[in-house]
Design goal:
By secondary structure, this protein is of the alpha+beta class. It has helices spanning 14-35, 40-51, 55-60, 77-87, 137-159, 162-177, 183-201, 205-212, 222-237, 242-245, 251-288, and strands spanning 62-67, 70-75, 90-99, 103-112, 117-126.
Length: 289
């Protein structure tokens, strides 16, 4: 007697289908990466060639941010993109994963398909101003894009070996510093960098010296020139502002500081008057005795 089999078809959820497609895509890319392994030296050399193709590209490969009175320098997201493009057999994704009332959260994943090594990083940026007011939608989008760039950069540099990154980064810094083989060329390059910041950001010599951590213009050498150029790139990328870079106070902060200074001066004057009066009384008592 022939029996009929009961066949039940269970439809796959959209999430399961997407997951299966993603897994198949990764499997194919991993197999391809194993078949065509990268040439590390060629990847590094190609990255150097592109990063130093012109001065503008080289400048974009670094950044500097003021932190605690001392700027932090490092390779930028632009260099991370150049390295990722030339490293090969690598997959990088970054996206905003969450938006809270105070922060936008970005996650980036960098997967070295050849070595089967992946890193996920998370970056948080605040979306609330100094007065506690939440950014508007456009500013939140801009902040999210900035967070994505930082997450992308950190993920790539966590996967690509530091020795490769450092060699490419160093080549770009040497290019933007220019020919400093003589003192005359050093002075010319220094003056160009200082004048650029004066003209474009209204920076004073005092502000420039303060951000560089040196005592005089003559102390500005190659490292300080590169730092200024990295700071310029960070401002252009929106990672910082001229006010933050040079530690300038906002109008409200200026008023608070003026009020605090005035109060402090008033207290100081009262103390001096009190001491003077006390001394006068002591002298009078001493004379009577």
């Amino acid at each position: 007697m022939q029996t009929e089999e009961n066949i039940q078809i269970i439809p796959a959820s959209a999430a399961e289908v997407i997951e299966a497609q993603e897994k198949a895509s990764y499997d194919i890319q991993i197999v391809t990466a194993k078949r065509f392994p990268r040439d590390v030296k060629r990847s590094r050399d190609n990255s150097i060639a592109i990063a130093t193709m012109d001065e503008d590209t080289a400048k974009s490969c670094g950044y500097a941010l003021p932190r605690g009175g001392k700027p932090i320098q490092g390779p930028s997201v632009h260099l991370a993109r150049i390295l990722a493009q030339n490293w090969g057999n690598i997959r990088v994704e970054s996206k905003v994963s969450e938006i809270t009332h105070n922060q936008v959260v970005s996650q980036a994943v960098c997967f070295d398909l050849e070595n089967n090594y992946a890193v996920k990083v998370e970056v948080r940026k605040k979306i609330v101003g100094s007065k506690g007011q939440r950014y508007n939608d456009d500013m939140i989008t801009v902040t999210g894009n900035a967070a994505n760039s930082i997450a992308f950069r950190n993920a790539v540099f966590a996967v690509i070996p530091k020795a490769v990154t450092d060699s490419v980064y160093k080549a770009t810094r040497n290019l933007i510093a220019g020919d400093l083989s003589s003192e005359e060329k050093m002075i010319k390059r220094r003056n160009q960098a200082v004048e650029y910041f004066k003209d474009n950001y209204g920076a004073t010599e005092e502000e420039i010296l303060q951000v560089l951590g040196v005592g005089s213009m003559n102390a500005i050498r190659q490292d300080q020139i590169v730092l200024l150029l990295d700071l310029d790139q960070a401002i252009k990328d929106g990672d910082t502002t001229p006010a933050d870079a040079f530690g300038r106070l906002s109008e409200s902060d200026k008023k608070k500081k003026e009020a605090a200074d005035k109060l402090k001066e008033g207290v100081k004057q009262k103390i001096q008057e009190s001491v003077a009066k006390k001394n006068e009384v002591n002298l009078q008592n001493h004379g009577q005795s």
